[in-house]
């Protein structure tokens, strides 16, 4: 009832006509980033917000609502009015939270209307500089023989590095000793200081260190090799068939947002992903914008469903939950 | 010499009118927002971060660095004037600084903070210039075992923060440790003491806790004793340091600077320990140790120098390795990424202008801070002459906004209210809150590193002894414990006999 | 010097500490403790809670054994406690609905009343001045994502949906509030 009132109020306030949707947007749009300002997801959001602001003719504001692995911010959007003025920019966690959190008060699959995919940040498998293995083949052999004696760092439960580590263990069929950290920074510190053996993390964090030889890089987790790190083989070509982890980002509206509004936002997003500055900055992060076909509501909805299905068994067999 | 060339480049960059202006704006904004009660450096930077996104990278980072130490400086001012620490390092400054302010010596306390910080900042900046890369390598030798031992040392040291009962101080540390457990367990993701509230999954927020315990608690205490239509400070004696004051702070400033510079390099919370390690040390060796907790100027000089030195040297792991040593550095790294710079070891070689410009600008920014703040001392002190019944509603208003701004969520406002009651209860029961806050900050790191060290050693507790650095730290902690506990046990016994 | 430990107060302190320890212990019971070599999430909480209970006992025992010296409690400023904590909680509940400026004015007015020297003549200007100052600083300058005045202050929020078409929109308020949010620019 109150919700209805609010929508009605919004319509009355900001358009005064019944054809409100065609005027959209008539006031600033808030994109909720469920992580703190300055993080990698925030970076992506701020990059696309600028060209989207130009395309929509209204300010696109980033609001950081961090906490609980991104579920607090996502919940805020899930329960927001579906009027196109409150959106969510989330990463792969949108798909994995469905399995990682057993007590989630919203449904990542059902409570959102996808607007489009944005970008994939690839990941790399690295080790401390004095680790004995020299190639991905040797690394896999070492992991398989030494099992629990191998220490695998990650940036905490639910982090992309954690997901990659889980997938790696399930793909190789071995259990290693997992060493969780609070964030990538401390995990990377202990890799650099040779305290732990292996880490699988986003190129954003690893490329600089790989360049100086302070860490050893073995493989990338994408389907194809990267332009920025052409010497690294993919996991797939190294014998771990179908192994793929990318930190993908998507833009969502609350479920029930009128289709014309979603389409207008998707068009603005597609435009933003063609923006040269956005492309250049994403390249600095070792990432590329997704293709125009992927920056669409249908593509995101399908991808989200696929990713939820992909991670469910991995997380459940690992038996690790974030609540 | 290469260094001179680098420094020349740094000065050329930092002294360009444009960058000088942004440095000034950063320092000014940082001080202005940081001085508001309830808003410490992290909240200030998070709020001001978007402003810098439109600037060229060098200017943006220079401005951000300015905001950082400006806010830190402003935070110390609030800690001294109204006993409201906006971050862990100024918890210690508040102890003696606020007592000084109550005695009408806020001027000298603020001047000490300004001069001590400037001196420490200068020394630490030189250290940064001369030896950043090798120092960063040393920092990497610190593994989980070493950090655990360091945290133990820190906890032992924090007992010394209390001026009253040792037993009660220890109780407060344990309570702080318990409160630090709230949230997701880092290793397994299990929720502990969150009562199914997802807002608590990342733990209690330091700012909300500190604003509640210190801010609201102190206000309630003051209202209870509101006997006269009083201002907080009746008479204000002198704004500047006397010769005698000056003599007293030289030693503490030097020692604080040394300790802060060393600890600041450690990315796992070293800078956080710096201020109260320095305080504890002074309390043990100062000839005026009886005055500590009652308004000793050394108790402001040492932690403020250590704090600022640590703040500067904590840039070392960030600039040379791309490793954030605290939440503020994490924000800085985010700013770099947004600016299109990949933080990490490449920054020195790929972006020498940025690297050296930023370092030099830190020194210039510190200089600006002193020049800006020394004349402001008179103004701050006059603020204390505002009638208290007009001052405290404003403090509460700012605390509410400050708590909200941390996560843009009202949840932290409620947490603050709860801890206002807790803080007042503690005051009523004669518990001092400072050790609680340090236990709260150190607890999670203590547990995390203990469990991580045990994981890495495959369950052998011998790591803490076989690693020489760790062993050394534990021995120092044991020695300190003896020094702290023995005299009080002896005096207790004497007391018991005399009764 | 003899009054280091005051009897009734420290007995209460000890009991409170024990209660806190027990509370944490009970709440942490279902957490897996693990072994000292492989500590589970419940290991630290258990050790600390037990320590806390022990400390509480020690404080109580020491307090009982000491001669009573001073009650040391003082009165409880109920009015101040209720007003200040109440106002803070109210701030939290009404912030998004009313907007920053009105909420601040209310908070300042309410808390000011906790002092026995509060007068309307001083408190009202203080409340209005602070509200204006904070609104300008935090919304205009710092871009805090908050409305100046919230949706609860618009007539249309309170009117039933079927009459919305005829509602006279408080244009000024709506305009200022969206202006304010617009200042949150991401450049």
UniProtKB/TrEMBL annotation, chain A:
Highest taxon listed in the record's lineage: Bacteria
Tell me which InterPro entries the record gives.
BUG (IPR005064), Bug_dom1 (IPR042100)
Q: Which residues form the signal peptide?
A: 1-20
Q: Does the keyword Signal apply?
A: yes
In terms of Pfam families, this protein maps to:
TctC (PF03401)
Ranges in coiled-coil conformation: none
Arranged from A to Z, the UniProt key words for this protein are: Signal
**Family from the record:** Belongs to the UPF0065 (bug) family.
- Annotated protein name in UniProt: ABC transporter substrate-binding protein
What species does this protein belong to? Skermanella aerolata
Automatic annotation (TrEMBL), chain B:
Q: List the InterPro entries.
A: DUF112_TM
Q: Which domain of life is it from?
A: Bacteria
Key words, A-Z:
Membrane, Transmembrane, Transmembrane helix
Q: What is this protein called?
A: DUF112 domain-containing protein
Residue ranges crossing the lipid bilayer per the database entry: 20-39, 45-69, 109-132, 152-182, 258-279, 321-342, 354-374, 386-404, 462-486
Q: Which organism is it from?
A: Skermanella aerolata
Instruction: Using the record's annotation, list all stretches that form the DUF112 domain.
Output: 20-438
Record keywords: Transport included?
A: no
TrEMBL record, chain C:
Record InterPro entries: DUF1468
Q: Does the keyword Cell inner membrane apply?
A: no
According to the record, the segments passing through the membrane are: 12-31, 43-64, 76-94, 100-119, 126-148
Q: Which residues form the DUF1468 domain?
A: 12-147
Keyword tRNA processing attached: no
Pfam families assigned to the protein according to its UniProt record, in alphabetical order? TctB
Q: Which UniProt keywords apply?
A: Membrane, Transmembrane, Transmembrane helix
The name under which this protein is listed is: DUF1468 domain-containing protein
């Amino acid at each position: 009832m109150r919700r209805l009132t609010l929508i009605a109020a919004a319509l009355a306030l900001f358009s005064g006509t019944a054809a409100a949707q065609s005027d959209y947007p008539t006031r600033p749009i808030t994109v909720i980033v469920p992580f703190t300002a300055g993080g990698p997801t925030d970076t992506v959001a701020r990059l696309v917000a600028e060209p989207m602001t130009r395309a929509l003719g209204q300010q696109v504001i980033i609001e950081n609502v961090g906490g609980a692995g991104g579920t607090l911010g996502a919940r805020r959007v899930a329960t927001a009015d579906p009027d196109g003025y409150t959106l969510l920019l989330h990463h792969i966690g949108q798909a994995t939270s469905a399995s990682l959190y057993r007590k989630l008060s919203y449904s990542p699959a059902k409570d959102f209307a996808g607007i489009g995919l944005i970008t994939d940040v690839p990941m790399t498998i690295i080790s401390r500089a004095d680790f004995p293995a020299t190639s991905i083949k040797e690394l896999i052999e070492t992991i398989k023989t030494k099992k629990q004696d191998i220490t695998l760092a990650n940036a905490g439960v639910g982090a992309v590095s954690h997901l990659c580590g889980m997938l790696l263990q399930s793909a190789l069929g071995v259990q290693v000793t997992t060493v969780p950290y609070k964030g990538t920074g401390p995990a990377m510190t202990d890799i650099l200081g040779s305290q732990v053996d292996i880490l699988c993390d986003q190129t954003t964090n690893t490329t600089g260190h790989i360049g100086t030889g302070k860490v050893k890089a073995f493989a990338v987790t994408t389907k194809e090799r990267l332009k920025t790190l052409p010497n690294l083989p993919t996991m797939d070509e190294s014998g771990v068939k179908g192994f793929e982890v990318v930190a993908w980002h998507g833009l969502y509206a609350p479920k029930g947002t009128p289709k014309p509004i979603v389409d207008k936002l998707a068009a603005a997003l597609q435009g933003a992903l063609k923006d040269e500055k956005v492309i250049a900055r994403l390249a600095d992060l070792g990432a590329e914008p997704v293709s125009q076909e992927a920056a669409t509501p249908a593509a995101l909805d399908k991808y989200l469903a696929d990713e939820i299905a992909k991670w469910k068994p991995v997380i459940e067999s690992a038996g690790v939950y974030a609540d | 010499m290469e260094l001179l060339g680098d420094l020349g480049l740094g000065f050329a960059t930092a002294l360009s009118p444009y960058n000088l202006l942004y440095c000034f704006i950063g320092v000014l904004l940082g001080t202005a927002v940081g001085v508001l009660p309830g808003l410490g450096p992290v909240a200030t930077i998070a709020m001001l971060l978007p402003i810098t996104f439109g600037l060229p990278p060098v200017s943006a980072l220079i401005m951000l660095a300015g905001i950082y130490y400006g806010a830190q400086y402003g935070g110390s001012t609030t800690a001294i004037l109204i006993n409201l620490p906006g971050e862990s390092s100024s918890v210690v400054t508040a102890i003696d600084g606020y007592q000084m302010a109550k005695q009408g010596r806020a001027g000298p306390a603020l001047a000490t903070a300004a001069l001590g910080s400037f001196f420490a900042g200068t020394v630490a900046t030189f250290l940064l210039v001369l030896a950043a890369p090798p120092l960063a390598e040393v920092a990497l030798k610190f593994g989980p075992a070493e950090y655990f031992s360091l945290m133990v040392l820190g906890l032992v040291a924090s007992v010394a923060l209390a001026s009253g009962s040792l037993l009660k101080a220890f109780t407060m540390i344990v309570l702080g440790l318990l409160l630090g457990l709230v949230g997701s367990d880092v290793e397994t993701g299990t929720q502990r003491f969150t009562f199914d509230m997802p807002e608590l999954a990342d733990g209690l927020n330091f700012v909300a806790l500190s604003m509640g315990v210190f801010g609201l608690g102190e206000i309630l205490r003051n209202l209870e004793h509101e006997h006269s239509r009083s201002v907080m400070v009746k008479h204000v004696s002198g704004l500047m340091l006397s010769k005698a004051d000056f003599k007293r702070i030289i030693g503490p400033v030097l020692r604080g600077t040394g300790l802060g510079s060393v600890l600041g390099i450690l990315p796992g919370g070293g800078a956080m320990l710096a201020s109260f390690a320095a305080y504890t040390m002074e309390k043990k060796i100062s000839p005026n140790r009886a005055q500590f907790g009652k308004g000793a100027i050394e108790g402001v000089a040492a932690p403020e120098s250590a704090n600022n030195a640590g703040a500067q040297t904590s840039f070392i792991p960030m600039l040379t390795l791309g490793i954030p040593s605290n939440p503020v550095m994490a924000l800085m790294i985010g700013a770099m990424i947004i600016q299109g710079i990949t933080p990490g070891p490449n920054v020195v070689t790929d972006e020498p202008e940025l690297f050296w410009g930023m370092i030099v600008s830190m020194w210039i920014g510190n200089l600006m801070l002193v020049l800006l703040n020394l004349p402001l001392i008179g103004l701050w002190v006059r603020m204390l002459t505002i009638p208290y019944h007009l001052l405290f509603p404003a403090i509460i208003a700012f605390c509410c906004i400050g708590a909200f701004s941390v996560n843009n969520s009202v949840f932290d406002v409620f947490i603050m209210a709860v801890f206002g009651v807790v803080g007042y209860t503690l005051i009523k029961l004669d518990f001092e809150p400072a050790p609680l806050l340090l236990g709260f900050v150190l607890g999670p790191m203590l547990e995390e590193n203990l469990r991580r060290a045990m994981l890495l050693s495959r369950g052998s507790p011998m790591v803490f002894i076989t690693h020489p650095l760790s062993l050394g730290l534990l021995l120092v902690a044991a020695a300190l414990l003896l020094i702290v506990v023995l005299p009080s046990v002896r005096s207790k016994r004497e007391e018991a006999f005399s009764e | 010097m003899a009054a280091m430990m005051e009897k009734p107060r420290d007995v209460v302190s000890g009991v409170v500490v024990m209660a806190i320890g027990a509370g944490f212990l009970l709440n942490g019971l279902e957490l897996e403790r693990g072994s000292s070599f492989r500590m589970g999430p419940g290991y630290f909480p258990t050790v600390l809670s037990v320590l806390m209970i022990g400390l509480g006992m020690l404080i109580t025992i020491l307090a009982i054994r000491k001669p009573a010296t001073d009650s040391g409690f003082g009165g409880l400023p109920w009015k101040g406690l209720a007003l200040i904590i109440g106002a803070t909680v109210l701030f939290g509940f009404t912030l998004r609905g009313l907007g920053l400026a009105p909420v601040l004015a209310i908070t300042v007015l309410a808390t000011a009343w906790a002092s026995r020297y509060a007068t309307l003549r001083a408190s009202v200007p203080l409340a209005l001045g602070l509200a204006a100052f904070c609104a300008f600083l935090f919304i205009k300058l710092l871009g805090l994502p908050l409305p100046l005045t919230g949706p609860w202050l618009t007539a249309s929020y309170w009117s039933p949906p079927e009459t919305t078409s005829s509602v006279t929109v408080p244009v000024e308020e709506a305009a200022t509030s969206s202006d304010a949010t617009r200042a949150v620019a991401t450049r």
